[in-house]
Amino acid sequence: MPLKSSTPRGQRGVALVLAVVVTAICIVIVAGLMRYVLSEYQAAHLDWRQVQALYCAEAGVEYAMDALIKGEAVTNAEVSLANLGLEGAEGSFRVSTQPVTSAGVPDPEGDVRVLATGFVPSEAEFLAGRGVSRSVVAVVGTGEWDFGSDAVRSRNGVEYGSNDDLTVVVDEDGNEIHGGDYANIRVTGEGGGVRNTSSNKAHVAGSVTAPGEVDLIDSRTAGVSENNPENCIPDAFPDPAALGYDSSNPAQLIWPPPPGTWSHYFYQEALAGGTSYLWDTGTIQAPRFINLWGIGTLSNVRLRGPGVIFVWGDLGGGIVNGPPAATVVATGTLETKGNESYRCDPGDEPVAPPLILFGRDKGGWSAQIRGNSTWDLRGPLISFHPQGEVWLNDSAIGCMGALISNGTVHFKSSSAKLGFPSFLQNQRFVVHAGKYVRSYVAQ
Hints:
By secondary structure, this protein is α/β, with parallel strands linked by helices. It has two domains: 49-146 and 436-442, no CATH class; 152-431, no CATH class. Helices cover 18% and strands 35% of the residues. A hairpin with a 2-residue loop joins strand 3 and strand 4. The radius of gyration is 34 Å and the shape is elongated. The mean pLDDT is 90.
């Protein structure tokens, strides 16, 4: 006899309807969740693509910076990341540049406006409505480094012997001005000081500041601050690698100069004006690269600015710079002797451009003045070699200007002293080099 269900037929129909309803509700809920998840995924994917496009635009700014540093033209064609060697990278950028102007007048610092637009996956896909783009506007300017206003600034320290004077204030003709007290000496490196190799204590026509010991008589200066770690200025000089040196000791200047270094910046600026050689005569007009193959010496020549004259070699006597004066940069050293001279005439400018040296002789010096020779700098001499020394071997006030050394300043002759011109009082010695982003706006 067949079994009969204990559930009434009507109740079985209600359960079926209820199951259908619950299933339908679950389908609606799942569909809603799937739509929400899909919408969130699409939004997140779009956000990520927007971030990718921004990265592409920033890569465009870096691309333009690299070209500007090298002195090359910036292409305005679309550049894909894959073509730059980034395998598997998606995206591209397009860059345009133009000089910064104000009321139609170019910026005196030569700043450049860079507009970089990034695309993901490409510009064509973006124009077809299947991609995204972001833009970055950056203003690229020339960097600058402030070396202060001291008569002598040295990272490693100052040395002297039986000198009575280290610095004196002089007028435009080189005559000593008694009573001047602003021909200051500053040592910036950790533990650096002013060291005396004899029993005499010298006079400084200004103040002396150093992290280490200062071997002077306080009453013979305008003030001494010594043995104070707070007097150390860690970033008083650029890093050797940023200047263009290798990591050896003593450091060697890398040739050709690596892109992005100070030496490369000066080299490129000078090279844009053409090349001269040792046998070229007459006046050399900046910008100009003087090719002495790293072993020759430039001497008995007139230079004119404005701009950079970059010498691949050494500097000797008989050089007249200006007017107007050029920024003279040498990979080697400067040495004058006998009655030789280096003379700078900035013309109407209050301060002459810097004379910059990257080299170091086997004897350890980067610049040396001997005998009755003279340096009429009318501005700063800057020795960048981290182990280099500036030697004053002259018998009087042979050097007139300011001395800035990434190594040491050594008053080797007992009669040697630096004449600090009165017109340099409160003047800041600033060097312009390198490129950096002054301002940045993402769109």
